[in-house]
Each structure stands twice: as structure tokens, then as C-alpha cells.
Inverse folding.
């Protein structure tokens, strides 16, 4: 299946193994900075913006059945704090290791295991990655690694207190912020009591409308 899709060597996530060669034990280190592909991360939660730089550090090792790729990707992801909804940025470092098999090695493997468990083998094949014409595509590996390295519930700071349930203010900006519903009611009652003591007669006699009229003119 993977063999049907031709790899494009101009794709920055496609790597060439010709220089590495096929002698088992050969090693090659590669550094490459690429533009992040679309949808790299957890959609609508936190992701590396399309086109943002992704630094790749790779170690290719030639083994009998293919190329073992070990590496690290570094990038900056952007998202939103799940508690206070502020935008946030996060440095991501994602490690990965993946085997890219030579297609002929796959066929040998198939021939050998046909008699054993076909079903299990076919399932494994779905996930297998291959070297095709000496090229391999790192993109699926990068995607999986970045997703695993990102938090499902990103927060702007470990102890982000979130938003005030009463008024929605961001509590980290205003640590002393609080509402005491009981106090507010008390204050209202005390205010009412005060106005009743001080100005009960004035209110009853309709002094307030008069004041309002004066202020408006
Ligand atoms: Zn927050
Ligand atoms: Zn509040």
C-alpha cells in the first residue's frame, strides 16, 4: 500500500538514504530545519503553527532489514490555557525511533510468516513504514511524536488558578480577587438599614425624584 505513493525528494520531510548505504552498521547524522506541516499537534488544543520552524536531529542507522531512524524534533507550539483561556506558547521536544523497512525484507517476512498468523501479520503491515527508492517519509513519525509530546490539557502555568466563576476575571492577574456573596448581601442589608434610619422620612416624602430632576436640568 505504502509503495503506491511515490515519495517526492523535494518534500523536506522526505529523507534520502543513498548516502547512508545499505551496509549494516553504517551511521549517518542529519540536522534539518523544516517548516511545520499543516495540523501538527492536537487540533484546537495546542499545535505547532503551519510554517513554524521545526528543528530535526536525526540519526540513521543501516540495519539488515532497513533503516532505523532515531531522532528529536524541537518546535514551539501555540494553544490556549484550558483554565484561564489565555494564549500560551510551549517549547516541544519530541523524541522518536522508527524502523523503515526495505520492501524486499517485508516480502521475505511475509513468506516466512504466511503459515503462522496471517491476520496478525497483516495488521502489523498497516503500521509498517518503508524505504522507497532509497527515500523515507518522516511525516507520520513526526506527527505521532509531536502529539505524544504535547499536553492534552495545556496550562499557562502549573498552578494557574483559572477564571473567577462569578465574574470571569483571570485570577492569576488578580490573586486577591474574591467575591463573598454573604458579605455582599450583608452590605446591601446594612446599606438598606442605614438608609431607613437616616432618610426614611425623606424617601417616603418623595425627596429623591426631586433631586433627580434638579440633576438633569
Ligand atoms: Zn492559565
Ligand atoms: Zn470575580
Amino acid at each position: 500500500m505504502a509503495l503506491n505513493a511515490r515519495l517526492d525528494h523535494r518534500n523536506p520531510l522526505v529523507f534520502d538514504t543513498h548516502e547512508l548505504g545499505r551496509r549494516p552498521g553504517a551511521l549517518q547524522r542529519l540536522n534539518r530545519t523544516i517548516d511545520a506541516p499543516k495540523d501538527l499537534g492536537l487540533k484546537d488544543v495546542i499545535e505547532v503553527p503551519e510554517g513554524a520552524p521545526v528543528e530535526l536531529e536525526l540519526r540513521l542507522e543501516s540495519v539488515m532489514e532497513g533503516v532505523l531512524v532515531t531522532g528529536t524534533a524541537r518546535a514551539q507550539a501555540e494553544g490556549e490555557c484550558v483554565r484561564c483561556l489565555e494564549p500560551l506558547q510551549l517549547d516541544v521536544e519530541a523524541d522518536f525511533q522508527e524502523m523503515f523497512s526495505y520492501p524486499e525484507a517485508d516480502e521475505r517476512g511475509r513468506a516466512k510468516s504466511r503459515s503462522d498468523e496471517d491476520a496478525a501479520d497483516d495488521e502489523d503491515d498497516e503500521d509498517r513504514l518503508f524505504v522507497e527508492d532509497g527515500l523515507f517519509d518522516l511525516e507520520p513519525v513526526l506527527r505521532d511524536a509531536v502529539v505524544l509530546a504535547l499536553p492534552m490539557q495545556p496550562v499557562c502555568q502549573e498552578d494557574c488558578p483559572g477564571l473567577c466563576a462569578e465574574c470571569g476575571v483571570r485570577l492569576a492577574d488578580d490573586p486577591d480577587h474574591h467575591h463573598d456573596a454573604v458579605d455582599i448581601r450583608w452590605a446591601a442589608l446594612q446599606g438598606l438599614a442605614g438608609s431607613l434610619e437616616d432618610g426614611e422620612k425623606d424617601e417616603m416624602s418623595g425627596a429623591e425624584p426631586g433631586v433627580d430632576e434638579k440633576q438633569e436640568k
